[in-house]
Amino acid sequence: MRKEENMKGIAFAVAGCAMLLLATVGAAPSFNAQQQTLGEKCRCVAFRLDDIQDYYLQGTQIRLMDEFERRNLPLTVGVIGNYFGQDEKIVSFVKEGVAAGRLEVANHGWNHERFTLYSQTEQSDLMAKTNEKLNNILGFRPLIFIAPYNAVNDKTFAAAKDNAILYVSANMTFDKPPYNNKRDDGLWHYPETAETGDLSSDGARWLGYDHEKTMSEIKRGIDENGFAVVTMHPMEFALRDGLSFHDKLDEKQMQELDMLLKSINEQGYEITTLGDLAWRSESV
Length: 284
Hints:
Layout: H1 7-11, E1 44-52, H2 58-70, E2 75-79, H3 88-99, E3 103-107, H4 120-138, E4 144-146, H5 154-162, E5 167-169, E6 188-189, E7 194-195, E8 197-199, E9 206-208, H6 211-225, E10 227-232, E11 238-241, E12 244-249, H7 251-266, E13 270-272, H8 277-280
Parallel strand pairs: 1-2, 1-10, 1-13, 2-3, 4-5, 5-6, 7-10
Antiparallel strand pairs: 8-9, 11-12
Helix pairs in contact: 2-3, 4-5, 6-7
């Protein structure tokens, strides 16, 4: 994961299930639900912060999570299992966020693998290793799987079901519609519909997007699907030279995030977690 060919992974649970509807924000139940008012539909936007891990851009990771905390906004974080557990600052911040009902934790692979390269059994084992480790550290097994590289196939969905995962988030290229309803595979599918940044097409640098571009993608996602999922990575919020990253904030990109969050509020959209989308987002 420290190798350049995996940079997009580094540079690229959870909500209560239908039978556990009594959870409330702040209760931090064992399945880490971030339940809001049931039955009250919204034009919802969920933010997922991928690549949470020990030591890597530590200050940037914490600053992003803290930005949502300061605004009293929920956030779903994708944790890489094999790279999580030794960094006291990161682990403590995630634990505190979960206990306070601020953070929803998702399984983001064991070594940030491209899951489509593996058999169903291998995919299931990788998910299980991360869920077991997170259970040992945080006290629950995530119910959300955020696919590394956004890469999924039918074997991924079967593996998720093997691990009692309820929600999968990839992108609309790998995971086609319909969305917003539980499918025949027993899962809710909420793919990425917008990004705050991404690796450049030539793979030479990490780009941060302006808030207007991301907001346009959010509007399109809500108009077409009834929800939006915005993917963030620590990389676009850190100072960088090509693919060399420094654990110092890119203040310009943080300003773009500030303007994006304000635009979402002005538009009348509501920010929620990935898991809450099953109960809150509007069907179209």
